[in-house]
Design goal:
By secondary structure, the protein is an alpha+beta fold. The chain is built from 22 helices and 25 strands. The longest helix has 20 residues, at 590-609.
């Protein structure tokens, strides 16, 4: 048995032999059964297969050509389908003038176009009128113009098999799912991320086995719940087949998230974007900070199935009546935040998916990757430990939730934490596993969750402790600030908010969310994150600003980046910081708090220097709390 890897699906050359392709129209598609074709219906490589398909298009147009062979499906769409349709039209019109040229157009449309356009008679006009001349002029070869997207018949996912001719291979990696990733660079900057799923390494017998198992599963001939895919495979697999591997692939495409599983298996991929209309746009990924197009495509049925799967796992509504989705799901071994939009709010359904970090970030780890400096980390660490209220501001994707999650480890281990978020992104499980008392409340507008305002009021009744809001964005803001103003909690209050700096955050909280200016003054500091200018360091703290004033707040910067580096402004050293003064216990002076900051700075610096940046299972990542 010979494997059929992605790289071998488009071998050059033109195999000979009779064509056993069986074309038939199915709505707007021309479907081709190629099980009896010794060349597998490969239109890009075999003139006889092209003859069968173009011959069917002499009398009728189509929008796509779908070739099925031994459990694999190749789709010829867009320019590929247009060339085949134009060849059929040309063959029909020109037959009365030149039967030989009409036959040539069926086997070799590019050759027929070259001959027709070189003539001085009406055949050149016919080639132009039906579009064959223009389409052929754009084509370098059949391997490029007739490059299909290929996938299992058991799947709605397809991959493009051609790589741009000017692309340079810069990296190849193997993933835990068995897939292979290749990164290509191009002179025009349109780099390419090419995924070769493990199923494209299967041989003919294995893909046929998957197709038969899928048909049994879809027809309801196999029961057993979650075990049904494995039973379906074992029912039809040859004795020597690797049924474990085949079952894993079948589960991925019938009970899982298809090629999203492979994309998110790549640790370098943080985001996946499916842009409407999804069937006309390649899937894009953000990999190592850069957003690039992939060779992955999803069918219309696949988009609908994906939306249905997101609804089922998240419990959130998503339809024309509720055209937006904000949910969290598990793809492979990663938690993924899903933002979706559909009609009538969009021309079709689209999704943006962001993976949570597998690791639980700590302040030393964020220092190590240059998100912030050691002294700035020490200030935030001590402020959280001593019960200050901090807002983390910045644009979407700037790392607000990552920083918030890191700050949770700075709370004293004895402090109870009440955490409110609409999609689970913060490291609740890791904190609980480390012995922390963390109570999470889920909010939402559907799916049975409570609304954010009710969740906050409930949290205030669940016991005194630190209060954490995954995002401050609605009516809960007024409840939060009222609770802070009257001292309803004695520990830190932490949250994230969309805003560009302290002044913009203040405007959003007061003007948009209806919090009185005097109430906002109980905020101790605002930490603003931004995207850096280079792709290898996409997120960083831009400023730490404290709030001063009792009735009308103003903002004083403690840390900033005047020349690119995060540096002190000198306000703390001059003894002018309200934030530092507020950390002092009744027995301490301002100088004592500065001493504690220096001690904390040394601790974090030591941890960062010795690469002790991971979470300790039995203690906080900043164990020395003295001073």
């Amino acid at each position: 048995m010979t494997p059929r890897p992605l790289s071998g699906l488009l071998d050059s050359g033109e195999p000979s032999g009779c064509c056993g392709c069986q074309p038939a129209f199915d709505g707007e598609a021309l479907t081709v059964q190629a099980e009896h074709c010794e060349n597998g219906g490969r239109l890009e490589a075999n003139p006889a297969c092209r003859d069968s398909v173009v011959g069917a298009l002499v009398d009728r147009d189509c929008k796509r050509v779908v070739v099925s062979d031994a459990g694999l499906e190749a789709r010829y769409e867009d320019a590929a389908c247009a060339l085949l349709v134009a060849a059929g039209r040309f063959a029909e019109v020109v037959r009365d003038r030149d039967e030989r040229l009409a036959d040539l157009a069926r086997r070799d449309p590019l050759g027929a176009a070259t001959e027709a356009t070189g003539r001085a008679d009406a055949t050149a006009d016919i080639a132009a009128e039906v579009g064959l001349a223009e389409l052929a002029a754009r084509a370098d070869s059949y391997e490029s113009v007739l490059a299909p997207t290929v996938g299992l018949t058991a799947s709605d996912w397809r991959v493009e098999t051609a790589v741009p001719p000017d692309a340079r291979l810069v990296e190849t990696r193997s993933l835990d799912t068995g897939a292979t990733v290749r990164r290509y660079a191009r002179d025009d900057g349109r780099d390419r991320y090419v995924l070769e799923p493990s199923e494209h390494q299967l041989d003919r017998t294995e893909t046929e086995t998957l197709a038969r198992a899928y048909r049994r599963l879809a027809a309801g001939h196999v029961d057993g719940g979650e075990r049904a895919p494995g039973r379906a495979v074992r029912d039809v697999a040859p004795a020597a087949a690797d049924t474990t591997r085949l079952t894993r692939i079948l589960v991925k495409h019938t009970r899982g998230y298809g090629l999203l599983t492979d994309l998110f298996a790549d640790a370098a991929v943080s985001d996946v974007f499916l842009t409407a209309p999804v069937t006309e746009n390649p899937v894009r990924v953000r990999v190592d900070g850069d957003t690039v197009a992939t060779n992955v495509r999803l069918s219309e049925a696949g988009v609908e199935a994906l939306a249905s799967r997101f609804r089922a796992e998240s419990g959130r509504a998503f339809s024309r009546a509720e055209p937006t989705l904000d949910a969290a799901v598990t793809v492979g071994d990663r938690r993924v935040r899903v933002a979706g939009i559909t009609e009538p709010a969009s021309d079709g359904t689209a999704f943006a998916l962001r993976a949570h970090d597998r690791r639980a970030w700590t302040l030393p780890a964020l220092v190590a990757n240059d998100t912030l400096t050691v002294p700035a980390a020490a200030l935030l660490s001590l402020a959280v430990e001593r019960g200050r209220s901090l807002l983390i501001a910045g644009p979407r994707g700037a790392g607000k939730t990552t920083l918030l999650g890191a700050l949770l480890w700075e709370l004293p281990a004895s402090v109870r934490t009440l955490l409110i978020e609409d999609a689970p992104e913060l490291p609740v499980r890791q904190l609980q596993s480390a012995g922390r008392d963390v109570q999470a409340l889920r909010t939402g507008e559907d799916g049975g969750e409570i609304d954010p305002e009710t969740a906050l009021r409930t949290a205030l009744r669940l016991g005194d402790g630190a209060l954490v809001l995954g995002e401050v964005r609605g009516s809960e803001a007024r409840v939060l600030y009222e609770a802070m103003r009257v001292g309803a909690n004695s520990e830190a209050v932490l949250g994230t908010i969309h805003g560009d700096g302290a002044a913009a955050t203040y405007e959003r909280v007061v003007s948009d969310l209806g919090v009185p200016p005097s109430s906002f003054c109980v905020t101790d500091a605002i930490v603003t994150l931004e995207y850096a200018e280079t792709a290898d360091q996409p997120r960083r703290v831009r400023a730490i600003e404290e709030v001063v004033g009792r009735e009308e707040p103003r903002f004083e910067r403690l840390y900033g980046r005047p020349d690119g580096e995060l540096v002190r402004t000198g306000r703390i050293e001059r003894g002018n910081s309200r934030l530092v003064a507020g950390m002092a216990t009744p027995e301490e002076t301002y100088a004592d708090v500065r001493g504690a900051l220096e001690t904390r700075t040394r601790n974090i610096d030591s941890q960062t220097a010795s690469m002790r940046t991971d979470v300790e299972r039995d203690s906080s990542p900043t164990p020395d709390r003295s001073g």
